[in-house]
């Protein structure tokens, strides 16, 4: 990923970001940070970049010309011709200002998907409005306070975005932890010595009993959130109440239940069993209703919520009686209808005869390991359901796609969707009938259990092969269908 910072203080940016994790990632070529000095582009003979505001008022304003020319030089390098393009489309350009939308983890995740990001730092009393109108795509604030310039906010944003770029944290679990954050603060942590200033590390953390440790940490997270962030705790409590309703039809609602359990859900609407959740990870809305009338209110809430973020794209309905309304109200069409398939037990499945994890070779037995970008082409060529290379790249980069290899050759693959369902299962034609699908599905179920998730997936209506496979592994199916909808 490439960051381009337009600033009057380039040294501040380069020095501030040359250390520690971000500095190392830049050295390793995982990202690049370029600071462009706006002053280099002024046409003023005294290298002036500011002037008095028309109409009077305190302070000086940055003028349009040097800002525009500095920006144009960056855009021309990224995408020759884009700056002069009539369509007005060009790489995302963020202006750091206290008047912008709040910078959040969600926005950091979204911006991390960009290949190039331009950040514009203002100074003095701001920048001439006319150039902002022409170049800025996003106005972003890092908090409700006023700083002397946009450099520190730009550095804050770069730090938060860069740590989401695959490889930057060189910590395999980072992507996993990400999916657990959101609704609770982190629990307290302790390192050696066991006793310091008369304070002992809580006994449970020394016990070696992972189940008790997890329970203690969860409780500590809840307490800490209640004390330090009552606003967040209120959201957490509301989501817990939604869980009670959703669990009345556990199989049908497993996707929504897991969104809450994994900390990905943001509550959009809740009135008894009429609930709409937004999945922070995938940007998909999930909707369930008790009656068509109540369901309609939840649909309206979803539509309003999405307007802030450029509108609803994908949403999932859990009742047949909502389909027509949703099609009319949101001008949406149905993409597919599926049954939920849920692994309801806690014990892992046996892997004997399917695959080995001990590294030993056995003829005809698959070796399962994470896929890397070198498998990208073979996956996109063979995965029939999603025709979206960017999505598959994202899943591979985040470490959520796995391949079964027979004698070193890729025989099939499976993974976890962004919202949390197991899927993307495909066995290459020449390897069919050899239990590769079963091996991959078993692997995904056991991996989910190890990571504290309830394994579930979705089986398209009429896909008997998939249904039989899931049945053979003991998965249970929802009685009714869920409907994946796309706004047109
Ligand atoms: N420039 C000055 N104050 C700022 C803030 N709070 N966020 C973003 N940019 C700024």
SSE arrangement:
Blueprint: E1 2-7, H1 10-16, H2 20-27, E2 32-37, E3 50-51, E4 61-62, H3 64-78, E5 93-102, H4 105-111, E6 116-121, H5 129-135, E7 138-141, H6 151-162, H7 174-180, E8 195-196, E9 199-200, H8 210-228, H9 230-246, H10 254-261, E10 265-271, E11 274-279, E12 285-288, H11 292-307, E13 314-317, H12 323-330, E14 332-342, E15 355-356, E16 366-370, H13 376-382, H14 389-397, E17 401-406, E18 409-416, E19 422-427, H15 436-450, E20 456-460, H16 464-472, E21 476-477, E22 482-487
Parallel strand pairs: 1-2, 1-6, 5-6, 5-7, 12-13, 15-16
Antiparallel strand pairs: 3-4, 8-9, 10-11, 11-12, 13-22, 14-20, 14-21, 14-22, 16-17, 17-18, 18-19
Adenine binds at residues 96-98, 141-143, 145-147, 150, 153.
Give the mean pLDDT.
93
Task: Assess the beta-strand content as a share of residues.
Answer: 15-25%
Hetero ligands: adenine
**Dominant shape:** globular
Number of strands: 22
Query: Tell me about the biggest sheet?
Result: 8 strands, mixed
Pick out the low-confidence regions: 172-180
Report Rg: 26 Å
Total helical segments: 16
């Amino acid at each position: 990923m490439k960051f381009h910072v337009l600033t009057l203080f380039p040294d501040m940016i380069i020095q501030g970001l040359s250390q520690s994790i971000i500095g190392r990632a830049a050295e390793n070529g995982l990202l690049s940070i370029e600071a462009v000095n706006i002053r280099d582009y002024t046409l003023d003979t005294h290298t002036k970049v500011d002037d008095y505001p028309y109409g009077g008022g305190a302070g000086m304003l940055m003028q349009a010309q040097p800002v525009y020319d500095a920006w144009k030089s960056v855009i021309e390098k990224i995408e020759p011709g884009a700056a002069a393009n009539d369509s007005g489309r060009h790489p995302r350009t963020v202006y750091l200002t206290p008047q912008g939308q709040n910078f959040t983890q969600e926005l950091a995740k979204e911006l991390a998907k960009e290949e190039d990001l331009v950040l514009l730092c203002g100074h003095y009393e701001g920048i001439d409005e006319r150039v902002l109108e022409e170049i800025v795509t996003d106005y972003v604030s890092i908090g409700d306070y006023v700083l002397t310039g946009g450099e520190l906010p730009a550095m804050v944003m770069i730090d938060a975005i860069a740590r989401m770029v695959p490889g930057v944290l060189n910590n395999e679990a980072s992507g996993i932890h990400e999916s657990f954050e959101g609704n609770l603060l982190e629990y307290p942590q302790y390192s050696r010595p066991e006793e310091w200033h008369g304070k002992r590390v809580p006994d449970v953390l020394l016990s070696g009993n992972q189940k008790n440790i997890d329970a203690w940490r969860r409780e500590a997270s809840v307490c800490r959130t209640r004390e330090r962030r009552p606003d967040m705790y209120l959201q957490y409590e509301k989501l817990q109440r939604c869980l009670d309703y959703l669990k009345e039809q556990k199989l049908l609602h497993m996707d929504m239940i897991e969104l809450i359990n994994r900390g990905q859900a943001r509550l959009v609407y809740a009135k008894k069993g009429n609930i709409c959740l937004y999945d922070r990870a995938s940007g998909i809305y999930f909707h369930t209703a008790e009656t068509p009338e109540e369901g309609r209110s939840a649909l309206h809430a979803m539509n309003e919520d999405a307007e802030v973020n450029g509108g609803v794209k994908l949403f999932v309905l859990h009742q047949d009686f909502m389909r027509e309304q949703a099609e009319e109200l949101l001008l949406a069409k149905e993409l597919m209808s599926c049954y939920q398939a849920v692994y309801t037990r806690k014990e892992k499945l046996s892997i004997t005869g399917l695959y080995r994890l001990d590294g030993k070779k056995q003829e005809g037995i698959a070796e399962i390991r994470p896929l890397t970008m070198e498998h990208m082409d073979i996956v996109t060529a063979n995965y029939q359901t999603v025709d979206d290379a960017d999505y598959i790249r994202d899943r591979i980069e985040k470490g959520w796609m796995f391949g079964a290899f027979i004698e070193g050759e890729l025989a099939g693959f499976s993974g976890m969707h962004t919202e949390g369902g197991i899927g993307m299962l495909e066995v290459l034609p020449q390897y069919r009938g050899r239990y590769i699908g079963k091996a991959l599905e078993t692997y995904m179920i056991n991996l989910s259990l190890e990571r504290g998730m309830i394994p579930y997936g979705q089986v398209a209506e009429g896909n008997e092969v998939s249904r039989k496979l899931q049945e053979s592994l003991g998965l249970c199916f929802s009685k009714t269908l869920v409907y994946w909808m796309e706004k047109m």
